[in-house]
Amino acid sequence: MNVDQILSLKGRNVVSIEADRSLSEAARILSERRIGALVVIDGRQPVAGILSERDIVRAVATQGAQALGEPVSRFMTGQVVTCSGRSSVNELMELMTQQKFRHVPVVEAGQLVGIISIGDVVKQRVGEIEAESQAIKEYIATA
Ligand code: AMP
Fold it and tell me: Where are the beta strands (DSSP E) in 1-143?
């Protein structure tokens, strides 16, 4: 299965935030939407950055609660690794494991078209493994 197939099942909505909004607004959105990362937008490029819950924890740990009033742009990761709709689930698993992040925005023709989280990848792999296991059981039962 590839990224396009996952997006057609889960949807293409991406929750984003402008780079000049505050860290506390970002925390509120993450909490309300029950997600772990926001794509940061600046109107010039499809993905200006990514801000994950870990960035907020790091900001508060190093700078205290006053960091929550600072703009997202100060704490986001600016060099974002993205994928395309043709990327395979295995490629994403390898990428997330090697680079130690759990979110990959999907960019097609210069447009942000979705986001894949580690939860989406795990759900898809578990589904595949269950289907394989069921097929083997049926094969043994009829052999
Ligand atoms: P995560 O595991 O996705 O919550 O993120 C861990 C760290 O990696 C945070 O500092 C994020 O800003 C950063 N990060 C998350 N996703 C990406 C990505 N696709 N490309 C680059 N950095 C990322």
Answer: 16-18, 37-41, 49-52, 103-108, 111-117
**CA geometry: angle 61, 58, 25, nearest 5 deg:** 100
Q: Is 26 in the pocket of ligand 1 (CB under 6 A)?
A: no
Nearest-atom number in ligand 1 for the CA of 104 is: 19
Ligand 1 center to residue 134 CA distance, Å?
35
CATH code (residue 108): 3.10.580.10
User: Which atom of ligand 1 sits closest to the CA of residue 53?
Assistant: 4
Residues in the chain: 143
The per-residue pLDDT for range 52-68, each reduced to its tens digit, is 999 999 999 999 999 99
Q: Which domain holds residue 46?
A: 3-142
pTM of the model: 0.91
pLDDT tens digit sequence for 18-55: 999 999 999 999 999 999 999 999 988 999 999 999 99
Q: Which atom of ligand 1 is nearest to the CA of 79?
A: 21
Domain count, the chain: 1
